[in-house]
Amino acid sequence: MKKRKVSIFMKLFFTYLISSFAAFILFSFIFYLLFNNNLKQSFLNSMETQQEQVVQILELAYQEENKEAIISTLSIINDQEHRSIFIYDKNGQLLYRFSTLQEPIHIEEEMIYKALQGASVKEFIKDKANPLFIMASPIEANEFDFDEKVVVIALHNYFGVVNGIKGLFLLAGAITIVVTTTFLYTLSKKITAPLREMNHVAMEYAKGDFTNKVKIKSNDEIGQLGKTFNYMANELSSLDLMRKEFVANVSHDMRSPLTSINGFVGALLDGTIPKNQQKRYLYLMKDETERLIKLVNDLLDIARIEAGQVSIQPINYNLSEQIRKLIAKMEPELIKQNIDIEFQGNLDEDIEVFADQNRMDQVFGNLLQNAVNFSPEKGLVTIIINELDHNVMVFIKDQGPGIKKEELKYIWDRFFKVDKARSKKVGTGIGLSIVKHIIDLHQAKIDVKSEVGVGTTFRVTLPRFSLKKNEI
Ligand SMILES: Nc1ncnc2c1ncn2[C@@H]1O[C@H](COP(=O)(O)OP(=O)(O)OP(=O)(O)O)[C@@H](O)[C@H]1O
Ligand SMILES: [Mg+2]
């Protein structure tokens, strides 16, 4: 079944809305309970005051000896109010009745009886249409001995007051709901806007367009996410660029030897190359194939190293012998290019290091090859081995063109070549990248010093012969 897509905006908006409504309903409920109690209490209290008022009117009438005044005053003051007043004599007979209600109010005889006994009785009669607050209380005899013995007050405007407040409450609620909903809608939109923007930008990244960036407007988690997002885009963009460069570099470096080989084979086949020259061309083709093999091997190597598939197996081995063998291997090339190699120190003395011998072959081979490749005619390459307490330092120094300071930091990047046009013949620019990876795997150190026009010196620092390893 297809899941319905609910946007984060909707989720946020409805969560806010439901929480606000729940809070509002809870507030209304508690408010209603408290208000109701309070209102009932104030109705009950007001009946006492009203009873006192009636007694005062009676007193006044007695003072003036004008009983008519009781009726006229009470009917005037009662007309405005939602209440009824009943006055009884000592036998419980109704003397006066003042009421704004059409229908009669039933007052229990027991209440009158209790009031005649001297008790004040209050009652709340729950009636769906018209709930009543009734109070029957005795009229205390003072200087006048009233005929009127009991006054009953009935208040019947409870619903009127409740409804009035209810109306106000509903109006306030409606205004609150409209304002809150608008506010929450705007807030949710504002909070989710960067997410929508990120989504939009991510879609463009997916299509390979890395030009758009997320605009960071806040420093909160979403702002941080935006920053991370932009950082990711930069990384992706440079990765994409690297991938394109990689393909371009590899294709270019493969094309030149392949084109040469293809040309030579064609020339050999159609007889353009005379028989006595054929061997020379076959050697040239061999050189080109070797270049291709080196390139492919280097590519495979770097791919495996970068994928973390290469581990090193360090052992204690003879470094002096390793350097001796490497120099011997390069002898033909050195003679061909008229380059001299000088070794400062005693090559016959055995100096042991703790490293992966095959991988270090690759490191020193690459460094020596670079020194030779970049050396001028009759140049001198110097190798120095320095033994320290815990380390051995190997210096490989040449009299080549040197590397500019601003370019030095890039030489470890794959495919980096200082002068792409001039050194095209020499290599692909992977050598030093492999060297750096191998040194890092050893947790060893490599650094370089170079001066333009003077030469370059690479220094490799390896741990010395390890007793620990031998004990194992
Ligand atoms: N001894 C050096 N003297 C001057 N420049 C150097 C020296 N060693 C390296 N470089 C510069 O650093 C770049 C990278 O060297 P790296 O060994 O990685 O590649 P490469 O020698 O060009 O090709 P590869 O080693 O893959 O066959 C070189 O192209 C060169 O510009
Ligand atoms: Mg190289």
UniProtKB/TrEMBL annotation:
EC id: 2.7.13.3
PROSITE patterns for the chain: HAMP, HIS_KIN
Xref: Gene3D superfamilies: 1.10.287.130, 6.10.340.10, Histidine kinase-like ATPase, C-terminal domain
GO CC annotation, single: plasma membrane
Subcellular location as annotated: Cell membrane
The keyword Glycoprotein appears for this protein: no
Catalytic activity from the UniProt record: ATP + protein L-histidine = ADP + protein N-phospho-L-histidine
Pfam families xref list: HAMP, HATPase_c, HisKA
Membrane-spanning segments: 12-35, 168-188
PANTHER family: SENSOR HISTIDINE KINASE CPXA
Protein name as catalogued: histidine kinase
Origin species: Anaerobacillus alkalidiazotrophicus
Organism classification: Bacteria, Bacillati, Bacillota, Bacilli, Bacillales
